[in-house]
């Protein structure tokens, strides 16, 4: 018996990157996966990959920043499948900018997608989890929500808010057998980081990440599978950092080449 047999797992941002890999891994463990994405073609491609491998999945085109769409999404899933066991929200953007270079419109955009959508997902999934006697919510945040980096004011603020929502949901609904945790990835090799490649990427990894490899979407998906499983039943309200040691270090002390 697999860990997620007869479970319904909803993955927001499942049309690519970490969301696609997570959808495949949950399905391989027996779950019925609801692949949610504003890009329906991406969601359908994920569903195709899952079903070709023998899994079960359905695509949903949803703008997760829109309250009516989120309310309808969970109502539709509950009506069709009867229960919602895991909600994993991954979708987000990562713009650059300071307090003076970021427009208010751009600041609102990142907060809407990276924080408001997290609230909406919790608001409309939790009632179904309460009725069925429990569930799991996993929120993808980021290490900049713990410790901001220069030129990332909107992203850092939104991710800090998502971490705070995680803790509030965990303590408010623990007695309803609902657990909520957040995963903070470091630099992950996903489409979100396309364009940051070659020498620039290597310099970043050499300077900031102690582990000598690129973190892959599978590393994040495997963490989510553990947090969603009964093996993690005592873990809630926690920020799980998956970053190769970057957040643990103030800086890396590599020996510089001797001057000629």
Detail the topology: elements first, then pairings.
Elements lengths: L7 E5 L4 H12 L3 E6 L2 H13 L3 E6 L5 H15 L4 E4 L14 H29 L2 E6 L12 H21 L4 E8 L12 H11 L8 H12 L10 E4 L18
Helix pairs in contact: 1-2, 1-7, 3-4, 4-5
Main sheet summary: 7 strands, parallel
Number of helices: 7
What series of H and E elements makes up the topology? EHEHEHEHEHEHHE
Name the average pLDDT: 92
Going by helix content, strand content and strand pairing, the class is alpha/beta
Write up what this structure looks like.
There is one protein chain. The protein is α/β, with parallel strands linked by helices and 260 residues long. It has seven helices and seven strands. It has helices at residues 17-28, 40-52, 67-81, 104-132, 153-173, 198-208, 217-228; strands at residues 8-12, 32-37, 56-61, 86-89, 135-140, 178-185, 239-242. The chain has a seven-stranded parallel sheet, with helices on both faces. The model has no long low-confidence stretch (mean pLDDT 92).
Summed up:
With about 260 residues, the protein is α/β, with parallel strands linked by helices. The chain is built from 7 helices and 7 strands; from the N terminus they run βαβαβαβαβαβααβ. It has a 7-stranded parallel sheet, with helices on both faces.
């Amino acid at each position: 018996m697999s860990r997620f047999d007869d479970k319904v797992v909803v993955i927001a941002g499942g049309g690519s990157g970490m969301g696609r890999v997570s959808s495949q891994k949950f399905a391989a463990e027996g779950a019925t996966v609801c692949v949610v994405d504003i890009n329906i073609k991406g969601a359908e491609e994920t569903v195709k990959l899952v079903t070709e491998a023998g899994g079960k999945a359905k695509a949903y085109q949803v703008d997760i920043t829109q309250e009516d769409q989120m309310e309808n999404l969970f109502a539709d899933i509950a009506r069709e499948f009867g229960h919602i066991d895991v909600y994993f929200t991954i979708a987000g953007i990562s713009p650059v900018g300071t307090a003076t270079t970021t427009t208010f419109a751009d600041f609102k955009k990142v907060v809407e997608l990276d924080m408001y959508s997290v609230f909406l997902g919790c608001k409309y999934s939790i009632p179904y989890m309460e009725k069925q006697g429990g569930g799991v919510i996993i929120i993808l945040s980021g290490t900049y929500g713990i410790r901001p980096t220069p030129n990332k004011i909107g992203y850092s603020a939104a991710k800090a808010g998502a971490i705070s929502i995680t803790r509030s949901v965990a303590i408010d609904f623990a007695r309803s057998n609902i657990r909520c945790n957040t995963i903070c990835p470091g630099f992950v090799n996903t489409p979100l980081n396309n364009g940051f490649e070659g020498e620039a990427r290597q310099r970043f990894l050499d300077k900031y990440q102690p582990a000598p490899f690129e973190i892959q979407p599978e590393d994040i998906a495997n963490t989510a599978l553990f947090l969603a499983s009964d093996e993690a039943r005592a873990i809630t309200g926690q920020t799980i950092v998956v970053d190769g040691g970057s957040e643990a270090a103030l800086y890396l002390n590599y020996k510089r080449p001797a001057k000629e």
